[in-house]
Design brief:
By secondary structure, the chain is of the alpha/beta class. The chain contains 31 helices and 36 strands. The strands form 9 sheets. Strands 5-4-18-17-16-6-7 form a 7-stranded mixed beta sheet, with helices on both faces. Strand 9, helix 8 and strand 10 form a beta-alpha-beta unit. Helix 3 packs parallel to helix 21 and helix 9 packs across helix 13.
């Protein structure tokens, strides 16, 4: 709670997913001290998930921050601190030289859906207006470009027609390719509320995995990977056969239906059932619930988008809405859930290789002329730029010589990491503009520029429902970090001088509001017209949806209520997609489908959430989930290390049996990269094949083989005090082990670094000494030790003030987990002194392990919840007695699952 002497809270928005939750930032004037949900923000009304509720903890971690510009004179040498003038003059000189010698398309800009709209706008203008290249693309290409292509192919514009209010108004909710409970928890809270207020609400979930979202559905369709188009076409077949389509709506407001009807004729539920792996009766039920409902709303995300046929999947789902007239009314419509906080804002300013400002089309000469006139340049380039992966492929070939990367981590997040890292090695000059100086991509930076982080800069973001929020800076950025738009504009002015172009007049901005005002002017008369908005209006009236043209008093809640679409004839267009298989098909060599997705408490490449100990509590380490039958065939048990391999590479990771999985499928979360495990991480094996329209890669599916990887030598290291700083020191070592993972454990007042290692042979004494030095565990006077050289066992326990602060177990690690908990709790060593070096998997004083944390807000472990459930507690009793699930609510689906599992076991 804010004290009488604290500054008033600052209104902002969460920096994570596209829900766009409003937050109130509390500070002491110099530091962010807390966050809470903004009760007046229409996206969340005060609610926050576990990630949003810990934003202040990530902001407080300065150990990983890039604080000053740093430049290296040549590859292989360390970067050295330089002034901003030296840094940007050097960058401008290098870019200018390359442009003069090789042309404008020899440079590229790879930016991020986590930038603010103002940042995005300046980068887009820098590339297309000053440099003269369309080689500017964004990591939104990895998450939203197929949703964009699907909307444009059918409805005519990149404009989600529905809104969050529709969740409460719908009678049938169709969730496809989204574990909403994990990926968009605050949207899921709305779903829970809707089900409470409307017990007749039907929820259908389409997902290969039996996720928490799927478990709570009325109907789960666990389709085989990539078969979405076949499923949607079969549902439309049923709707046509049973007269559930809206003939009047189709005739009045659409075109192309006859061709679609001919296409879906062959997609009978019976023929599709085997292809999709779901019963024909369930397909029919889904079609009836969707088509006969008074109002049907679809929510969908990466399961449809991250596909080599993502545009087709999106369009096939939108077809169902158009065919049944389920659009433009309360509770209806196809509603894509945005992956990043400002992926939509980036598209609004044209910050992608095939777009121009305000949803203009790069291929349209009139649109190019409009943008050139707005910017006061002779022309903007007409040749489409390289999209994300194409850009890195061009770098690897030597076509692109210089690459500017801002606010994203391609050396973790892009598929086919071997290719991406080879490209970064091959580039002549790499600029990385970042908050975190220790990302995988920062390792490749010739020039590292420190950017202001969340809470330290002003601008706007647009969430999934087209709602724009004004973010205010709460504190000054540390060190010499600067806002992203300011860095880009400063560089542009210097580059303009080098190239003899009007950089100063093109980039005259004195603050973020000046950038916003120019962006606003560019939208006049467009589908996303926001000429009626201003920073002042957003501050006075709160976040607003677009369009909001000049003279309007409010934005448009939902689109296409009049049945008029932004197409040449005003009609929506039916697409006629046919089912095509995934880019890679399983075979005898690679017999398993590999799927990726989100964890509940981590975010993207973990450059922020990976600094917060409590966010490791639910899932502590990378794990491959697999069906128990597939494990049995390979003689695997929980915790065994396995080698996951395909044509692109391999990774080593522990395996666990999961009831979420179907036979023949494996799953690994998307977050784990080379900073948290050995190797390049999960994207070592993901596929880089792309949708032909959206150019979005098929990150959701690859084929792999899995085999046991027996590594006989193990080590566990835990260290209290300055855990984040110590983790950053240890991370570069991970690549030297056959298998390793590192992370944090405990709560945030004094967390632990936890390092796990498995290797084919014992580590050398020199390597162990290097680890001890990095973790400050050399003080022999404070260390208890045990050595058995014959068996390769060496143990060190460091004690300060009667408490264990450091542990290194090598060769035998049975006591790791209870020692870890003991350290995290700050327990006194006296009762356990005789046992800390013993090979005991359980503590000797009769206590039991707490297990993983289910409720992160209140630190409630699984063991405590299961004990209460065994005594007959249901969800309301758990919430009343233990308080779990009463804060952010992210754990509620899991609590319900635990209660249900106990009832089923008892029965």
């Amino acid at each position: 709670m804010t004290s009488l002497h604290s500054p008033p809270p600052i209104q902002s928005a969460c920096a994570y997913c596209g829900v766009g939750c409003g937050v109130l930032i509390e500070t002491d004037g110099a530091r962010i001290t807390g966050v809470r949900g903004d009760p007046d923000h229409p996206a969340n009304f005060g609610r926050l998930c576990t990630k949003g509720a810990s934003l202040h903890l990530a902001a407080a971690q300065l150990d990983a921050r890039a604080l000053y510009p740093a430049l290296r004179s040549e590859r292989g040498t360390p970067r050295e601190r330089v002034s901003w003038d030296s840094a940007l003059d050097h960058a401008a000189g290098r870019f200018a030289e390359i442009i003069r010698n090789h042309g404008a398309d020899a440079v590229g800009f790879y930016i991020s859906g986590q930038l603010l709209t103002e940042d995005y706008y300046v980068f887009n203008k820098l590339a297309k207006g000053l440099v003269g290249t369309n080689n500017v693309d964004t990591n939104s290409r990895l998450c939203m470009s197929s949703a964009v292509s699907g909307y444009k192919a059918t409805l005519g514009a990149d404009a989600p027609p529905a809104c969050y209010e529709d969740i409460a108004a719908t009678d049938c909710l169709f969730i496809a390719g989204s574990n909403t409970a994990y990926a968009h928890p605050i949207v899921y809270r709305r779903i829970e509320d809707a089900r409470k207020s409307n017990p007749d609400l039907k929820v259908i979930v389409v997902d290969p995995r039996r996720t928490d979202t799927a478990r709570e559905a009325d109907l789960h369709l666990p389709i085989l990977p990539g078969t979405d188009v076949a499923l949607f076409n079969a549902m439309l077949h049923v709707m046509l056969w049973e007269n559930m389509t809206d003939a009047a709506y189709i005739a009045a407001h659409t075109s192309g239906f006859d061709a679609l009807r001919a296409t879906v004729r062959e997609y009978t539920p019976e023929s599709v059932a085997g292809l999709c792996g779901v019963p024909a009766t369930d397909i029919i039920t889904a079609a009836r619930w969707f088509g006969q409902s008074p109002a049907t709303l679809s929510l969908y995300c990466q399961g449809l988008n991250q596909s080599s046929h993502g545009t087709d999947k999106n369009a096939a789902l939108i077809n169902l809405h158009l065919a049944t007239g389920q659009i433009g009314r309360p509770g209806t419509g196809p509603f894509s859930l945005t992956g990043q906080p400002n992926a939509m804002g980036g598209r609004e300013v044209g910050g992608m290789a095939n777009l121009l400002s305000a949803h203009r089309d790069l291929a349209n000469p009139a649109h190019r002329a409009e943008v050139a006139a707005l910017w006061g340049v002779d022309s903007v380039p007409e040749i489409p730029g390289k999209t994300a992966l194409e850009m890195f492929e061009a770098v690897a070939r030597g076509e692109i010589k210089a690459l500017w990367i801002a606010c994203t981590n391609p050396a973790q997040s892009l598929p086919n990491q071997a290719l991406v890292r080879a490209a970064l090695e091959a580039a002549e000059f790499v600029v990385v503009q970042e908050v975190n100086a220790f990302t995988e991509t920062a390792d490749y930076a010739d020039l590292l520029l420190p950017a202001a982080a969340w809470g330290e800069k002003e601008g706007t973001v647009t969430n999934s429902e087209r709602r724009i929020t004004h973010l205010k800076a709460a504190i000054a950025a540390p060190g010499e970090a600067r806002p992203d738009w300011e860095i880009a504009a400063d560089f542009a002015r210097r580059l303009g001088a080098q190239l003899g172009k009007p950089g100063t007049t093109l980039f005259p901005y004195v603050n973020a509001e000046a950038v916003f005002n120019e962006h606003r002017a560019s939208t006049r008369g467009r589908d996303l017209d926001i000429t009626g908005l201003s920073y002042a209006l957003l501050d006075e009236q709160g976040p607003q949806q677009w369009p909001f043209p000049e003279g309007a008093t409010t934005g448009k809640v939902r689109l296409y209520a009049d049945g008029v679409y932004p197409t040449a004839d005003g009609r929506a267009r039916f697409a006629s997609p046919r089912y095509l298989p995934t880019a890679e098909v399983i075979d005898a060599r690679y017999p398993l489908h590999f799927n990726t997705g989100r964890l509940r408490d981590q975010w993207h490449g973990m450059s922020r959430t990976g600094m917060v100990a409590r966010l490791f509590s639910h899932v502590e380490t990378p794990v491959l989930s697999m069906h128990a039958d597939d494990m049995a065939r390979r003689s695997l048990k929980n915790g065994d290390l396995v080698r996951v391999k395909n044509r692109r590479g391999e990774l080593l990771v522990p395996v666990e049996a999961s009831e979420d999985m179907r036979v023949g499928q494996v799953f690994m979360p998307m977050h784990w990269g080379g900073r948290y495990m050995s190797g390049f991480g999960v994207n070592t094996v993901t596929a880089d094949q792309r949708d032909p329209v959206s150019r979005q890669p098929e990150l959701k599916h690859a084929v792999v083989q899995v085999e046991k990887a027996p590594l006989p030598w193990h080590m566990a290291v835990m260290r209290r005090d300055h855990a984040v700083a110590r983790m950053l020191r240890i991370q570069p070592l991970l690549a030297r082990f056959d298998y390793a993972s590192c992370g944090l454990y405990g709560r945030d007042n004094n967390p632990l670094l936890v390092l796990r290692v498995a290797h084919g042979t014992p580590l050398s004494a020199e390597m162990l000494a290097e680890i001890d030095t990095l973790l400050d565990m050399q003080d022999e006077a404070s260390i208890m030790r045990y050595d058995d050289p014959r068996r390769g066992i060496s143990k060190r326990v460091m004690v300060e003030d009667g408490r264990v602060v450091g542990v290194r177990l090598t060769g035998e690690t049975a006591a790791r987990d209870w020692l870890k908990e003991m350290m995290a709790e700050g327990a006194e060593i006296a009762p356990l002194r005789a046992w800390v070096l013993a090979p005991l998997a359980t503590p000797p004083v009769g206590s039991s392990s707490r297990g993983y944390i289910v409720c992160n807000c209140l630190n409630i472990p699984a063991t405590q919840i299961l004990e209460a459930v065994a005594q007959g507690a249901d969800l309301p009793v758990l919430q009343a007695r233990l308080k779990c699930g009463t804060e952010c609510g992210s754990c509620v689906p899991e609590l319900r699952r635990m209660v249900l599992a106990h009832k089923q076991e008892a029965a």
